[in-house]
Write a structure and sequence with these properties.
The protein has 298 residues and is α/β, with parallel strands linked by helices. The protein has helices at 13-22, 34-42, 51-55, 68-76, 81-84, 99-111, 124-130, 141-151, 166-194, 199-207, 214-219, 241-257, 263-277; strands spanning 3-7, 26-30, 46-47, 60-63, 90-93, 115-118, 121-122, 133-138, 155-162. The structure holds nicotinamide-adenine-dinucleotide.
Length: 298
């Protein structure tokens, strides 16, 4: 069993550490918000008062932070992971961040003699609680194999996506595609209703036809069609509009660095921003239907 240092005990980090502890690992955790550390301590995490304390003696350090700027600070700042950890420690950043920052973290780690993996996850808070997250790991083969037994306690699927930044690239492109296909589903759901189709009848047809998609089957944005859809609970919980906006923004920033114009992604990004401006940022991203039909009810 491993000694693990964990930085960032928020909505995802806390349940992920709980699964590591259930699998028999020892976890020392730090968060800038003391209440987050206290809450995790109730699940068996050893409370650390600093990054240095969390990473001392760790075989592996994981971080689960909001954005690239937080990850840069946690690794590069004085008193951060690079300053405090032993170079024997394998470092894994599970946050969803931009590819350029992920590559900078790999380079910074390598310069200092560390092994580093970018390892974003898919599956949301539910997947974190259930230990069924999909991990997309970017880094060297040997490092991915070394961390695999630990990641298994938190994962349903583990993919080695490729080299430096490949995990983030896979995650960002996946979520961008999800946002674009969701936009198709919300437009289709409203038009089908305006044509007088029963939503459930249209759903049953599309599900086995060429209009099928993951958001159609999981997030159909009209109540009474899909039990697990956020539309059944006023678009609460699920995957927030704010997080989707962040991820599509990361895809667009990456596309710009690559000299690519992605018109559908740009349009969905604008539509997500409009919802955030109107106060819907914490609702599930299928609330996108409100841009088409402002009377749409979850
Ligand atoms: P969160 O905001 O709930 O948690 C992040 C935690 O990091 C917070 O507790 C914050 O206090 C802490 N933090 C920030 N700066 C810190 C620092 N310098 N040192 C120590 N702790 C610091 O966010 P979350 O929902 O747990 O998401 C974390 C990451 O996972 C994000 O990048 C998100 O995009 C990604 N993600 C989230 C979900 C989801 O459904 N919530 C799903 C997949 C991926």
């Amino acid at each position: 069993m491993a000694n693990i240092g964990w930085i960032g005990l928020g909505n995802m980090g806390r349940p992920m550490t709980k699964n590591l502890i259930a699998a028999g690992h020892t976890v020392k955790g730090f968060d800038v918000v003391p209440a987050a550390v206290e809450a995790a301590a109730a699940d068996g995490v050893q409370a650390a008062g600093s990054i240095a304390e969390a990473v001392a003696g760790a075989d592996f350090v994981f971080s689960m932070l909001p954005k690239g700027e937080h990850a840069r600070s946690v690794y590069f700042d004085a008193g951060g992971v690079f300053d405090s950890a032993s170079t024997d420690t394998l470092l894994v950043d599970d946050s969803t961040i931009d590819v350029d920052t992920a590559r900078a973290l790999h380079a910074g780690a390598r310069e200092r003699g560390f092994r580093f993996i970018d390892g974003p996850v898919s599956g949301g808070v539910g997947g974190a609680q259930a230990g069924t997250l999909t991990f997309m790991l970017g880094g060297a083969d040997a490092d991915v194999e070394a961390v695999r037994p630990v990641v298994e306690a938190m994962a349903g699927n583990i993919f080695h996506a490729g080299g430096d930044g490949a995990g983030q690239a896979a995650k960002i492109v996946n979520n961008m595609q999800l946002a674009i296909s969701l936009q198709g589903v919300v437009e289709g759901a409203v038009l089908a209703q305006r044509f007088g189709l029963d939503p459930k009848v249209f759903f049953d047809i599309a599900k086995v036809s060429s209009g099928d998609s993951w958001p159609l089957r999981n997030w159909y944005p009209v109540p009474g069609v899909v039990d697990i859809s956020p539309a059944e609970r006023e678009f609460t919980a699920g995957f927030s509009t704010m997080l989707m906006h962040k991820d599509v923004g990361l895809a667009l920033a990456g596309a710009e660095s690559e000299g690519l114009d992605l018109p559908a992604a740009s349009l969905v990004h604008e539509k997500l921003q409009k919802l955030i401006d109107e106060g819907w940022g914490d609702r599930d991203t299928s609330v996108l239907i409100r841009n088409i039909d402002e009377n749409a009810k979850g």
